[in-house]
Amino acid sequence: ERNNKVLANSASTTSSGKAVRKGYGVPVKV
Known about the structure:
Elements: H1 2-16, H2 18-23
């Protein structure tokens, strides 16, 4: 569960940033 939370946190922080835009070429409105 801790690993999941850490991964989710990292993904959320990265996804919220430019990682999502850079990783996925899809316009995401957050």
